[in-house]
Amino acid sequence: MVGAGLAGCEAAFALAARGVPSRLLEMRPGTGTPAHRTDLPGELVCSNSFRSGNPENAPGLLKEELRRAGSRLMGIADAVRVPAGEALAVDRARFSRAVLEALEREPLITLERREVTELPDEPCIVAPGPLASPAIADDIQRAAGAGNLYFYDAIAPIVDGGTIDRSVAFPFSRYGKGGGDDYMNCPMSRAEYLCFVEALASARRVPPRPFEDELHFQGCQPVEAIADSGLFSLAFGPMKPVGIVPPPGREKPFAVVQLRRENMEGTAWNMVGFQTKLVQGEQKRVFRMIPGLNEARFLRFGSVHRNTYVNGPAVLDGYMRLRAAPNAMLAGQITGVEGYIESMATGLLAGMFTAALLAGRKPEPPPADTALGALLGHVTRGGEATFSPSNIHYGLFPVGPPGRGRRERRRAMSARALASLDNWLSGSP
Ligand SMILES: Cc1cc2nc3c(=O)[nH]c(=O)nc-3n(C[C@H](O)[C@H](O)[C@H](O)COP(=O)(O)OP(=O)(O)OC[C@H]3O[C@@H](n4cnc5c(N)ncnc54)[C@H](O)[C@@H]3O)c2cc1C
């Protein structure tokens, strides 16, 4: 394993649980990253929260699946939790120390402190995280092919399709290209646009970290930074109305916010060009000013930050192995998942897959209607052209049973996922 972060440690434990010895190679403390502060494995670099504990929410469901699938890090998180309402939050120092102790107690895992500068020739799980050292990042780029490794995220929010007001938003693809309902358009009058730009420019933002200074020079300007650059910059940029024809009888909009379909079922829609560094509460407040989105629920909030990740669907096979170097299986944030529990989940899958492959078996991937399967599907089978990192949300799942309210549909999707998972686990090593 390259990297003793959340994914690397989880993968090592999964291998050990299946009797496979491994070496876990970690570059800290000899070589640091701009965010890690300790030399402990499984360090939580920012928040101490693993998000909702309610299994009816997608993050809560993923945690329940991890527990059922034998995740060691979830077990440790549960043991060192601190009160945080419905969320699972942990004492971060106790968490990482407990991970270290568990690694040291495990005879099949050897923790070595050194930087790995190129992809090993032997079977390996590569989990160097969002702040991978430049040497290993270069080698992954070489194997993945130019243009398939990225060094920052520019993530736009995703809106729950059931909460878009379709009496206001209308389907139309710019210049009539593509399918008629590939895009939804939220139209704005001049007065609505001016009001929106003012709210956007004055909304509260996440302060940039020192090592993220260069981001805005790389063509991933947050939408609020575009608004700062001039009153009409958005109307000539991501909100330009050209080539968009409203339904008969409706006025030509002054500006539009386009929503791009995230899945065939139309349960999730991406706000095109709306990568943002607004704090989440402000995203909710300001983006709900957009006509058609007044009642919108956000499946994922936007963000812009430093991140190293591959275009998974372009370069990974169904087991997250680099197609061009199949002895290297990726895990963690570098695969294009986003978040602590998502990184752990891909680590667990990588450990399970590797143990089976080393034993000469072809492992069955988790079903698509589980949270584990939905994440794996996102990084191995999502759309290459529009790929962006994602945390777990219901928009990644196959559509739920029809004809129910949102809450009941989610409850049904969660129950379906757990039943599918149990069935899968009963046949998995
Ligand atoms: C600044 C920042 C804040 C974040 N905040 C949150 C948050 O609040 N909540 C959330 O859910 N997610 C957050 N994330 C996203 C992500 O969930 C975490 O970064 C998570 O730790 C990723 O897990 P990982 O195992 O992929 O990588 P990491 O946990 O970062 O582990 C990678 C490990 O690999 C080591 N390494 C790197 N290169 C090499 C090499 N060449 N050789 C050997 N070792 C190497 C690193 O030192 C590190 O220990 C944040 C990310 C960043 C960058």
What labels describe this entry?
alpha+beta, single chain, Elongation Factor Tu (Ef-tu), domain 3, 429 residues, FAD/NAD(P)-binding domain, 3-stranded antiparallel beta sheet, 6-stranded antiparallel beta sheet, binds flavin-adenine dinucleotide, 16 strands
Arithmetic mean of pLDDT: 93
User: Into which percent range does the helicity of residues fall?
Assistant: 25-40%
Tell me the overall shape: globular
Q: Number of DSSP strands?
A: 16
Number of domains: 2
Name the helix and strand elements from N-terminus to C-terminus, one letter apiece.
HEEHHEEHEEHEEEEHHHEEHEEHEEHHH
Give the cofactors and ligands. Answer: flavin-adenine dinucleotide
Structural class: alpha+beta
Strand content: 15-25%
Could you say what the CATH architecture of the largest domain is?
3-Layer(bba) Sandwich
| Order of neighbouring strands in the sheet with most strands | 9-10-11-12-8-13
What is the name of the CATH class of the largest domain?
Alpha Beta
Q: Segments where pLDDT lies below 50 for 5+ residues?
A: none
Textual characterization of the structure:
By secondary structure, the chain is of the alpha+beta class. It has two domains: 6-152 and 305-427, 3-Layer(bba) Sandwich (FAD/NAD(P)-binding domain); 158-301, Elongation Factor Tu (Ef-tu), domain 3. The protein is built from 13 helices and 16 strands. It has helices at 6-17, 58-68, 72-79, 92-105, 134-144, 190-202, 223-228, 233-236, 280-287, 312-315, 340-358, 371-381, 406-427; strands spanning 22-26, 49-52, 81-82, 87-90, 109-113, 124-126, 149-155, 158-160, 170-171, 183-188, 255-261, 268-271, 298-300, 303-310, 321-322, 325-330. It has a six-stranded antiparallel β-sheet with strand order 9-10-11-12-8-13. Helix 1 packs parallel to helix 11 (340-358) and helix 2 (58-68) packs parallel to helix 11. The longest helix is centred in the last third of the chain and has 22 residues, at 406-427. The radius of gyration is 22 Å and the shape is globular. The relative contact order is 0.17. Flavin-adenine dinucleotide binds next to helix 1, strand 1 and helix 11. Residues 2-8, 25-28, 33, 35-36, 45-47, 115-116, 127-133, 136, 306, 332-333, 339-340, 343 line the site of flavin-adenine dinucleotide.
